[in-house]
UniProtKB/TrEMBL annotation:
Pfam families: TauD (PF02668). This is Taurine dioxygenase. GO terms for cellular component: cytoplasm. It comes from Actinosynnema mirum (strain ATCC 29888 / DSM 43827 / JCM 3225 / NBRC 14064 / NCIMB 13271 / NRRL B-12336 / IMRU 3971 / 101). Keywords: Dioxygenase, Iron, Metal-binding, Oxidoreductase. Residues 8-253 form the TauD/TfdA-like domain.
Amino acid sequence: MRSGMTFQVRPVSGSIGAEVYGVDLSTVDDEQFKEIHDLLVRHLVLFFPEAGGLTPEAHQAFGSRFGELEVHPFLPKLEGHEHIVVLDSDKGAKADVWHTDVSYVKHPPITSVLQITLTPEAGGDTMWSNQYLAYEALSEPMRELLEGTTASHVFAHPQGTFRSEVEHPVVRVHPVSGRKSLYVNRMFTKRILQLSRGESAALLEHLFEVSESPQRTCRYRWAPGAVAMWDNRATQHYAVNDYTGRRVGQRVTVMGDDPRGAEPRWPHFQEGAMAATVVKD
Ligand SMILES: O=C(O)CCC(=O)C(=O)O
Ligand SMILES: [Fe+2]
């Protein structure tokens, strides 16, 4: 375990994710916020096993340190809390396709903060994958081919209540770390627009496989009340649907930036900009 300025940090895999101990998320001061932020950019997913169940107010307050909170366009909300999405397996919330959150809008969220309030007896883990490493695993000619290409990201609600389609770069540059990451996902990305339909379908399938490869992932076993937060700009995630019984989570989501390259949203970070840990294949 590595001791940071104030916290203890334990990586959970060789390529992405770290547990953070010794922090009370309901009383984070400015210095602690900066440390958490830097750890998030470095490890891409942080786990707080000791969070012990944040109140809705504390959950929102912590999320809003990172920016304005999103009101999700259609997912169910916690009563009286429009910024807290409720993910209840009994109501069909099983995110068992690899994705980045809400990539079908113009400014996809920067980060999501999820606490699991009810865990099944066994199973119900979540996985994350590192999309810097996915990009870096591509050959040089493939990277050159993808440079400047864009893809459509689409979501159409089955009941016709919501539809959105946007175009994002296939490779994006993280505004804080400056690193490139692969930005296509199996749930929402439909087509690389500069390629023929057939070329796009074949290449997207390959890119999804690279994005989802186990060697670039971590897998987290939840205890009730644990909290995870991820950098949605350089990761994907997947909720393993291997359980019976009920599983419930609550999520706040921080409004996003422009994947085409935007001003850093957290300028203070620029001074000590660090590259996230590089783990090559
Ligand atoms: O249920 C989970 O573990 C993750 C669900 C999900 O995709 C999300 O909260 O964005
Ligand atoms: Fe998600």
